[in-house]
Design a protein that fits this description.
heterodimer, A: 317 residues, mainly alpha, two-stranded antiparallel ribbon, B: 119 residues, alpha+beta
Chain lengths: 317, 119
């Protein structure tokens, strides 16, 4: 047996300890950089977004300041030179997000169930690949598809109800496009959580006499609800935060709220994006104020869904 | 609970309906992907060419010569390939390479124009 020199051992241990310390500091620095960059972005948005309510802007020789109250509760995007309001846009955004989630949730959960438990392996792998491809398609392609195809569907369906739609630019189109975009995200997370369900649960259910279908719907899905909820939270965030595709099919209505699914609409993201390249001064800064509201809404919905998830877990559902 | 022929049938019907709904919903993803791919290729394939991939996004027009329009109307088109002649009173020539057509005509002079890619 070969014995190492005592000094050499100490030296090696010292080098290892130094390397450990270096890696620890490096990782800490990277984490710090990531946190600081997020804080920097948020701080930038807040500073820019608060400016319209505290500073005066000169427009055509006159000074204007936006009223925070009318900004938050108004029902017309722009009246005069500085009367910006997003009350109706907030309602439209929440309305669209809820409709999108109502469509996305069953489609995603059932698709995940079919992929994980109801199809033979080759078919399941094909479906999985399709979902992954859909998740990787850029939003502008969804927007173009919405503009070229879904608007025609909306137009034809609205014709059936004798409603004159603006060439199909409508809430209906926005909801369908957002559903197409959020389904892959929610499905992928649901697949992961369904795969993670303890196989003994399935065996137990089948042994007690439940059919395969009953086991899938009444045992497996409830057991995977935590992951499914995480997927829904991500899907909702995507629905709330999507700008490009929504701007292409929303119609950017100037006043509202619009509850009719065949009428044009406007969301917070489409408001921020539309005409940003020509915007300057107040018209530019007010988009950051809209961004602050969007951040608050996304945080609010995330907390709401988490609370709902916790309640369900507490009740053992 | 007593298992009867009727309850078994009901259970089977429920199973079939549940499974059918799940299969139907899962078709959504497949249909959407197929539709998107079909739509993009259907709309875009006719403009795909080697020139489209390698040339500039916008075509740049180059004016090679111009003169007063005093002799307008007497000029004969020599039919040179890729050379375009505009009538008198034409100024702003814009070629749309994808559609291969001249878009606007307004000028006090006759202009002989070549596409820069050709020149």
């Amino acid at each position: 047996m070969r014995y190492l020199d005592r000094d050499k051992c100490f030296k090696k241990a010292e080098i290892n300890a130094k390397a450990d310390r270096f890696v620890r500091y490096l990782l800490f620095f990277i984490a710090f950089l990531a946190s600081v960059s997020i804080l920097f972005v948020i701080a930038f948005i807040f500073i820019k977004g608060i400016k319209p309510f505290v500073s005066e802007y000169e427009i055509q020789g006159e000074k204007y300041r936006v009223s925070f109250f009318s900004f938050l509760f108004g029902n017309t995007w722009l009246t005069g030179n500085s009367g910006y309001s997003i009350g109706f846009i907030i309602i439209n955004t929440i309305y669209i997000a809820i409709l999108t989630m109502l469509l996305t949730a069953p489609i995603s959960i059932f698709t995940a169930l079919v992929i994980v438990r109801m199809t033979p392996k080759p078919l399941s792998a094909t479906l999985n690949t399709i979902i992954e491809i859909l998740a990787s398609i850029p939003s502008v392609i969804y927007g173009m598809f919405g503009l070229g195809v879904v608007t025609n569907w909306a137009k034809n369906i609205s014709d059936l109800f004798n409603y004159q739609s603006a060439g199909g630019l409508s809430t209906f189109t926005v909801v369908l496009v957002l559903t197409m975009m959020s389904v892959p995200t929610v499905t992928m997370l649901s697949i992961t959580s369904l795969k993670a369900v303890n196989p003994n649960l399935e065996k137990g259910s089948l042994a007690l006499g439940a059919s395969r279908s009953e086991t899938n719907f009444k045992v497996i899905i409830p057991a995977a609800k935590s992951g499914i909820f995480s997927g829904l939270i991500l899907g909702l965030s995507r629905a709330l935060g999507e700008a490009t595709a929504v701007s292409m099919v929303a119609g950017n209505r100037l006043s509202g709220p619009s509850y009719n699914i065949f009428s044009t609409t406007r969301t917070l993201t489409s408001t921020m994006l539309s005409g940003i390249s020509e915007a300057s001064g107040l018209n530019y800064d007010i988009r950051f104020s809209v961004g602050i509201m969007l951040i608050f809404i996304i945080i609010f919905f995330n907390l709401l869904l988490r609370l709902f998830k916790k309640r369900l877990e507490k009740r053992g559902l | 609970m007593k298992v009867t022929e009727r309850s078994l049938k009901q259970r089977k019907a429920k199973d079939i309906s549940r499974d059918s709904i799940a299969y139907l919903f899962s078709l959504f993803g497949v249909l959407i992907l197929a539709l998107i791919i079909f739509f993009v290729f259907d709309k875009g394939h006719e403009y795909l060419s080697w020139e489209f991939l390698t040339s500039d996004y916008y075509t740049t027009n180059t004016t090679v010569s111009y003169g007063n329009s005093t002799s307008a109307g007497t000029f004969e088109n020599p039919n040179i390939e890729n050379v375009y002649f505009l009538p008198a009173g034409v100024s702003d020539l814009k070629m749309d390479t994808t559609m291969r057509r001249i878009q606007s005509f307004k000028s006090p002079m006759s202009i002989r124009t070549l596409r820069s890619t050709i020149s």
